[in-house]
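User: Fold this; tokens only.

Assistant: Input:
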Amino acid sequence: KSVVFISHKLREVKAVSDVITVIRRGKVVGDAPPSASTTELASMMVGRSVSLNLQKEPAKLGEATFQVRDLVVLSDTGQAVVDHLSFEIAKGEILAVAGVQGNGQTELTEAIMGLQEHVAGSIKLDGEELVGKRVAQIIDAGVGFVPEDRSVDGLVGTFTVAENLVLNRYNKAPFAKGLSMRPAVVARNAAEKIEEFDIRTQSAEAAAGTLSGGNQQKVVMARELSRPLSLFIASQPTRGVDVGSIEFLHKRIVAERDGGTPVMIVSTELDEVLELADRIAVLYSGRLMGIVPGNTSRDVLGLMMAGMSAEDALSHQSENEGGAQ
């Protein structure tokens, strides 16, 4: 059979393809063999040189201002989908939450944002308890949130790009005065963010739902990173985004960390986890398998994602390395 495989994940493309055709802005820009490097392919996709290895300085940790203690989230049937989680994130640190999709990551982020009803335990930011607060109060506490499903939870598709860029601040200065929005200020903000984040849109007045998935993601990221934050949470931050934009967004996430913000990334992409994380927390069936350094091997992370504790996974790796020697 002839197979056409379409993906922007270069590791997958190289693994399955016999020949690779690269398309940029609707036009074929060339073919390449699967032996071509990921850097070559990325440059063809974007039209410029792209660095796939994020350069970041070691984290300069401050106080652990975000603390989760004994967190439990129950489903409507009473099952613990988040099972007694405890962890903390320091200022100037990126904690990446890894795991196969459906192991409690969604419920964890929603509990932090006040979107889950059956929550027990404690979630504190700057000493203030977030459990029991409304979503608007949590946003006002300085929490930036990029949800995993941008089309359902991150955007209003029928609103303009300009309006979506101020969804979390439309009723506050400088975008509002009294009970009225200030269209000129909203438009000026949109023009700045469209240029800064390279959002491909016909205009700021275009409906957000008409944008490509990657450009919709840029709108959400631009909005959430455009105000001072006490905590930044991004779930699948670069899902559906091209490699050039991934490079840019990863740099912005690291810049947020370097500005002293505690950052929590949730991703099912191990490449992204290993690229960004200072520490990695692995979830399995709602339980924390352990928290390991950001340079932990893929093999260890894979064992933890399958339900093995960090201690057992590290021991298993050591035994295998010893046997190989």
